[in-house]
């Protein structure tokens, strides 16, 4: 049988063996260096493997793209955390980071290797074309910041790339890949074009329960549908949020309904797995997709509002990043009836539950403890506490809670266990009593009391030990102490003498109190100084990233471009400067507003009509210059555009809201 060949030594070790001779000292040094060389890769493999990429690597101005970072470590090593990303000034972070967990398993030559880690993603958009290098993202690991590699991204002018059908959703963390595209048809035709001949007859998969008599929007809108509009405190209310659409649309920046007065649970984990259906709204055929489904448990009585779900939607007929809101669902919440309410009922315990209990051990010594575990199972709003039987000789300590709650066929259910430690001071057969759980069953519209008997525990009596000696000896010692109560007193003075005060300690009096007060005073002073330094740094950082400063930077860039005669660069810089000045003065992010609607938005915020018209005029001039085939250097247009932009920015800076 042939012996398998030995694996070749690393080049560094081979060279080391060739250099050393056969002397003992040389052989020992060579072995030490070889051991260090073999251990170095093990140390290197212990550090996280970090990767970063942009998806896609080329995007248009105003088109969101994703930056994704992954960090994996060997099982047992510290987990990476706190990913950070900084982008150049021309790029803006729309959302993120969206953080998830990662696991990767490899099998090499029969050996299984598992790596765990995190993934983080950001949504980014660019203001102007060019090639940009995004600095290396970093993660925190074992008290250090470790970087990935810098990311290259190419931004092209808006409209310069051929349009492809977009994904149905673009959520934080990147597009949802691998979904069938139900929003549009082949050949670039819209849903209206494909279904124009079918409006007279119902589609085979039409869903009538989602139909509406009239349409809130003729293209795309959000709608919230509750399963009920009246409930009791603690009863589950299921609210489904749907996207209705008739053309290709891209949904970004979703914001869930606040539902501040409800305890909420998500009923669907991945909206990509939900298939779109058809329905009719106002005589038109719409595609409908479920994008969120929540189980809400009211926390109080009254007229409770879920709030509106919001999202930015981009489409051919509606424009870019148009805000859409769902309807606000109102739930009338009352308390369960007082008639027939059992003793011990806690408001909010609503559902269908069962109780199980275990007691361990069943035989202890007097003064010992047993463990009582009570498990509540069922669906609904699981109780947060249980009422335990109280009696003399039993001490119930605060319970340890464990729970497993998840959706079950559209309802929230699971189990919650309470682990009690019960100390027993009595002896004999001690009955622990019965634990009862009264709750309201919304299906049967009545109260139900579920109970479980805990049984009894055999407690062996224990005689109390004596502190020391016999009772007789204790009495003798007490008698001696009573016979000579002043035996330790000093003797009487036989002659008069000068009074000598007792010696004082070196730190007695004021020095002692000064030393005692010094540490807290120093800590207070250092804490106040540290807070002042941090606030100064935060104010300086906020000033550097403020819209007013960014507007000034863009204005300087426009002046430099005008001096060089570059009309297109001047127009792009003036456009950024005016948008930043509007955001600084009014708080409005005007880049996401259509140019024709901008004067109306500004006037709603109190900006004078003349100033709104001049801002619109400057932005329209910049947009016209950007789409010209070439600029007109030397004709004074760049300098005039700079002066117009400066005048608008100055008026916006001076304007104060009334």
UniProtKB/TrEMBL annotation:
InterPro entries according to UniProt: BatD, LipOase_C
Pfam family, one: BatD
PROSITE patterns, per the entry: LIPOXYGENASE_3
Lipoxygenase domain segment(s): 1-107
Annotated GO MF terms: metal ion binding; oxidoreductase activity, acting on single donors with incorporation of molecular oxygen, incorporation of two atoms of oxygen
Source organism superkingdom: Bacteria
Stated name of the protein: Lipoxygenase domain-containing protein
Organism from which the protein derives: Sorangium cellulosum
């Amino acid at each position: 049988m042939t012996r398998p060949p030995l694996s070749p030594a690393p080049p560094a070790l081979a060279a080391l063996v060739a250099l050393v001779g056969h002397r003992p000292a040389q052989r020992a040094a060579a072995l030490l260096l070889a051991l260090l060389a073999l251990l170095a890769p093990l140390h290197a493999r212990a550090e996280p493997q970090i990767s970063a990429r942009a998806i896609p690597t080329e995007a248009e101005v105003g088109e969101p793209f994703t930056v994704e970072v992954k960090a994996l470590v060997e099982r047992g090593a510290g987990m990476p955390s706190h990913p950070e990303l900084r982008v150049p000034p021309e790029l803006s972070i729309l959302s993120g980071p969206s953080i998830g967990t990662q696991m990767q398993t490899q099998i090499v030559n029969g050996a299984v290797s598992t790596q765990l880690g995190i993934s983080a993603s950001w949504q980014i958009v660019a203001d102007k074309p060019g090639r940009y290098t995004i600095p290396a993202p970093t993660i925190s690991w074992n008290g250090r910041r470790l970087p990935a590699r810098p990311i290259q991204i190419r931004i092209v002018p808006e409209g310069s790339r051929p349009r492809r059908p977009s994904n149905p959703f673009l959520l934080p963390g990147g597009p949802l890949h691998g979904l069938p595209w139900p929003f549009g048809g082949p050949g670039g035709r819209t849903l209206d074009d494909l279904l124009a001949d079918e409006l007279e007859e119902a589609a085979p998969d039409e869903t009538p329960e989602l139909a509406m008599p009239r349409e809130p929007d003729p293209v795309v809108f959000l709608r919230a549908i509750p399963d009920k509009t009246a409930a009791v405190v603690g009863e589950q209310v299921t609210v489904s949020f749907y996207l209705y659409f008739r053309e290709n649309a891209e949904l970004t920046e979703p914001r869930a309904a606040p539902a501040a007065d409800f305890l909420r649970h998500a009923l669907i984990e991945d909206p990509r797995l939900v298939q779109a259906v058809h329905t009719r709204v106002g005589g038109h055929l719409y595609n409908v997709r479920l994008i969120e489904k929540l189980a809400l448990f009211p926390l109080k009585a009254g007229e409770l509002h879920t709030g509106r779900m919001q999202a930015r939607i981009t489409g051919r007929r509606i424009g870019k990043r148009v805000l859409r809101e769902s309807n606000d669902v109102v739930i009338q919440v009352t308390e369960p009836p007082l008639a027939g309410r059992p003793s011990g009922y806690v408001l909010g315990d609503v559902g269908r539950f069962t109780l199980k209990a275990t007691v361990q051990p069943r035989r202890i010594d007097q003064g010992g403890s047993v463990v009582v575990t009570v498990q509540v199972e069922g669906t609904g709003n699981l109780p947060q506490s249980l009422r335990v039987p109280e009696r003399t000789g039993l001490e119930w300590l605060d319970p340890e809670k464990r729970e497993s709650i998840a959706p079950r066929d559209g309802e929230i259910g699971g189990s919650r266990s309470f682990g009690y430690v019960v100390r027993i001071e009595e002896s004999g057969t001690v009955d622990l009593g019965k634990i009862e759980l009264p709750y309201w069953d919304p299906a049967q519209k009545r109260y139900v009391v579920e109970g479980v008997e805990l049984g009894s525990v055999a407690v062996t009596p224990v005689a109390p030990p004596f502190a020391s000696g016999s009772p007789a000896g204790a009495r003798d010692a007490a008698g001696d102490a009573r016979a000579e109560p002043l035996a330790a007193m000093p003797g009487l003075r036989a002659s008069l003498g000068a009074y000598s005060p007792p010696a004082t300690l070196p730190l007695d009096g004021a020095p002692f109190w000064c030393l005692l007060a010094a540490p807290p005073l120093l800590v207070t002073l250092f804490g106040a100084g540290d807070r002042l330094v941090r606030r100064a740094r935060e104010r300086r950082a906020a000033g550097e990233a403020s819209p007013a400063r960014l507007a000034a930077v863009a204005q300087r860039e426009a002046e430099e471009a005008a001096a060089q005669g570059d009309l297109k660069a001047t127009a792009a810089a003036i456009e950024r400067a005016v948008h930043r000045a509007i955001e600084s003065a009014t708080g409005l992010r005007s880049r996401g507003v259509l140019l024709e609607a901008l004067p109306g938005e500004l006037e709603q915020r109190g900006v004078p009509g003349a100033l709104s018209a001049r801002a619109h005029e400057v932005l329209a001039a910049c947009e016209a210059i950007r789409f010209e085939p070439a600029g007109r250097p030397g004709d004074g247009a760049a300098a005039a555009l700079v002066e117009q932009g400066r005048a608008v920015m100055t008026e916006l800076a001076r304007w104060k809201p009334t």
